[in-house]
Specification:
Blueprint lengths: L1 H8 L4 H12 L3 H10 L4 H14 L3 H10 L5 H8 L7 H27 L24 H53 L3
Length: about 200
């Protein structure tokens, strides 16, 4: 799930992703920034943390605490077990099916957003998070500034990647056009030689 969500977000700036998350989860930007920082600057982990918080009915702050205990990626399974969801159990399969459904929902949201650039598309199949489940203390202005700087840096990197890709595509397009022109000229020359 987290890998898929991460791959959907790769083509967008953090500000664009925040707009989608604000619409999907009905959470304010500051809360999302705090979760983004806490979950290792990974939108996939943020989404999974919020989904599990909602599914299990436990504060996302508790989930964040467990995630921090196991930052190497094995925390999600440990967390499910800690809350009584044993691998292979019917509850585990229900949770897995729910996560598959939520994954498809996010894929559709990102596909639609790519076409429309309207963050409101994330309101479809909306999953507002119960404010009582947030359970994290507010950030200081200094923390907020630090996270915003990280996001600005990431957004610049994404912009550089886009420019590089566009240059590569333009170069490849030019090469293909040149090849097509050459082939067309060869065909025209061949047709003239054949008397057509």
């Amino acid at each position: 799930y987290t890998r898929d969500i991460r791959s959907y977000t790769d083509y967008y700036t953090d500000d664009q992703v925040i707009g989608l998350y604000e619409n999907q989860y009905a959470l304010p930007r500051n809360t999302l920034l705090q979760l983004f920082d806490g979950f290792g600057l990974d939108w996939g982990n943020v989404s999974l943390g919020l989904e599990l918080s909602n599914y299990l009915g436990i504060p996302v702050g508790d989930i964040l605490g467990i995630y921090r205990e196991y930052p190497e990626g094995n925390g999600w399974g440990v967390m499910a077990q800690r809350y009584g969801i044993k691998p292979g159990s019917p509850e585990f399969h229900r949770m897995k099916a729910m996560m598959g459904k939520r994954n498809r929902n996010w894929k559709n949201i990102y596909d639609d957003y790519g076409r429309t650039q309207n963050p409101g598309v994330a309101r479809r199949n909306r999953l507002p998070i119960n404010v009582g489940l947030i359970g994290i203390s507010p950030m200081s202005p200094k923390e907020m500034e630090r996270i915003n700087k990280q996001i600005e840096k990431r957004n610049k990197e994404i912009g550089k990647q886009e420019k590089k890709m566009n240059k590569e595509w333009a170069k490849e397009d030019k090469k293909i056009r040149k090849q097509n022109d050459k082939a067309r000229k060869g065909m025209n020359k061949g047709m003239k030689n054949n008397g057509r």
